[in-house]
């Protein structure tokens, strides 16, 4: 991504105006206000894509250290600026991205998708459910939702569409390609919300919830997966049907799809040793993330989620499934570690310096005058939090900028901490449905040309409502059963 001087200039200008022009509000310290200036400038730069997000993060870390907004001591300032890079959650997501490289390198991801299509691909809707099932299968160990939906599933979806001569170039995308492209995309936000390790911003939510509640609410991998599984599965079941009703494919029966999948499986040959190892590592990590050893043998046999990720990566290295060169070349993993650490650090210090509590207090007073109570407040906050994503081109930027403040307001107004955390966590993934720039997967699939802009935005708005109603509706029942409120 080249340097964009106009976008960079806008980000710098915004930061300077907040720092030097806008007076520091009553109740806010200068240090907190200056950190806000750096933070908003960073978010504006990310939204405008002035530089790659990792480069922007490095600049942000440098500015935090240089300006001394966290400490007058230069040594302490740089320690503060680098403080989040020791967070296990950052390394969990980075290592998981490295591990997901094995799905692509070994071909296991493609084999899983072809396998489902070979069984359920007799009808177009069966192909759709096969793509969604493949998404779900690989989601727990692919924290790059772009790599999953755009890098693993999308090429298979295109190949199937092309085998039916359904392409934008031929003007025949409505035969089957448009429908499958929509399902390909809308499965992505749903599976992203079902596991902490299914998309990079989820661990950020975990960290922000933990800090906001003083450690009282700690969303483990198992807690998240159990809480989100039922609502997520219901959304995944309903989604292909809704799209089928609104944008039905011209071709309803696809017997050739089963043959296509079987031919590709034959071409791939017998499952390789490296695929078997990859599958074994996948299973082992799920067992450890689900805390099964501790449930059977006792809590002393519990394994930390980040340690589990390191075990998985170590196994892949020792068995030769991944080489160190493979890991070094996994730029998205190292990039994630860099920008993730910077954003967590800035968000943490906005909280430590008191800005989040000040902001939350003001919003609380504003909503409090309506007399809607915490249920009404949570409803308003959730809807605003979700649909303001029309103005964001990054879920990471959105969550970093707004989650802590919205969560703090809800807690202050009396929302149950665990319940509200799960609601906002779900909304943070549902919002990916909205636009063709909502998350990294969106432009990959949109640019393939199967779906027009009008169709994309229309189905995005519809699916956001459908997913929100199902996820929160089923969630309220399921989470009550789990005792979360």
Automatic annotation (TrEMBL):
A Pfam family annotated for this UniProt entry: Na_sulph_symp
Family affiliation: Belongs to the SLC13A/DASS transporter (TC 2.A.47) family. DIT1 subfamily.
Any one Gene Ontology molecular-function term assigned to this protein's record: transmembrane transporter activity
Membrane topology: Multi-pass membrane protein
Classification lineage: Bacteria, Pseudomonadati, Pseudomonadota, Gammaproteobacteria, Moraxellales
Protein name (record): DASS family divalent anion:Na+ symporter
Record keyword Protease present: no
Subcellular location, principal: membrane
Transmembrane segments: 6-24, 36-69, 81-100, 112-132, 224-247, 277-297, 303-324, 336-360, 372-392, 404-427, 456-479
InterPro entries membership: CitT-rel (IPR030676), SLC13A/DASS (IPR001898)
Organism, as annotated: Psychrobacter fozii
Record keywords, A-Z: Membrane, Transmembrane, Transmembrane helix
Gene Ontology CC: membrane
Subcellular location(s) per record: Membrane
């Amino acid at each position: 991504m080249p340097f964009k001087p106009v976008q960079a200039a806008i980000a710098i200008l915004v930061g300077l105006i907040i720092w030097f022009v806008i007076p520091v509000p009553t109740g806010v310290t200068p240090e907190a206000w200056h950190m806000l200036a750096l933070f908003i400038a960073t978010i504006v730069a990310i939204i405008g894509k002035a530089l790659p997000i990792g480069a922007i993060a490095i600049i942000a870390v440098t500015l935090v250290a240089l300006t001394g907004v966290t400490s007058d001591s230069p040594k302490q300032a740089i320690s503060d600026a680098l403080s989040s890079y020791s967070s296990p959650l950052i390394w969990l997501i980075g290592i998981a991205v490295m591990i997901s490289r094995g799905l692509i390198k070994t071909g296991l991801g493609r084999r899983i998708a072809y396998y489902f299509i070979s069984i359920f691909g007799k009808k177009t809707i069966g192909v759709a459910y096969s793509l969604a099932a493949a998404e779900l299968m690989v989601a727990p160990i692919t924290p790059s939702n772009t790599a999953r939906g755009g890098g693993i599933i999308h090429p298979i979806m295109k190949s199937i569409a092309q085998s039916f001569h359904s392409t934008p170039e031929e003007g025949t995308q409505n035969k089957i390609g448009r429908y499958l492209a929509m399902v390909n995309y809308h499965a992505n936000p749903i599976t992203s919300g079902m596991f902490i390790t299914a998309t990079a911003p989820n661990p950020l939510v975990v960290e922000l919830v933990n800090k906001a509640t003083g450690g009282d609410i700690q969303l483990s991998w198992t807690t998240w997966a159990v809480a989100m599984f039922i609502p997520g599965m219901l959304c995944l079941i309903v989604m292909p049907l809704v799209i089928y009703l609104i944008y039905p494919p011209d071709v309803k029966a696809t017997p050739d799809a089963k043959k296509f999948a079987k031919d590709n499986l034959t071409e791939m040959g017998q499952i390789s040793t490296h695929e078997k190892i990859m599958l074994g590592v996948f299973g082992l990590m799920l067992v450890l993330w689900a805390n099964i050893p501790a449930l059977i043998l006792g809590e002393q046999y519990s394994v930390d989620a980040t340690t589990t990720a390191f075990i998985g990566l170590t196994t892949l290295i020792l068995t030769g499934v991944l080489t160190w060169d493979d890991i070094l070349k996994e730029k998205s993993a190292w990039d994630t570690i860099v920008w993730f650490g910077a954003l967590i650090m800035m968000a943490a210090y906005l909280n430590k310096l008191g800005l989040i509590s000040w902001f939350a207090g003001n919003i609380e007073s504003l909503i409090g005058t309506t007399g809607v109570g915490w249920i009404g407040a949570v409803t308003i906050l959730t809807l605003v939090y979700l649909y303001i994503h029309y103005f964001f081109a990054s879920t990471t930027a959105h969550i970093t900028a707004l989650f802590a403040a919205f969560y703090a307001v809800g807690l202050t107004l009396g929302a149950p901490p665990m319940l509200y955390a799960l609601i906002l966590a779900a909304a943070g993934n549902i919002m990916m449905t909205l636009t063709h720039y909502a998350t990294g997967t969106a432009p990959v699939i949109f640019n393939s040309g199967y779906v027009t802009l009008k169709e994309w935005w229309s189905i995005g708005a519809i699916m956001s409502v459908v997913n929100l109603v199902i996820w929160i509706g089923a969630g309220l029942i399921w989470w009550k059963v789990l005792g979360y409120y």
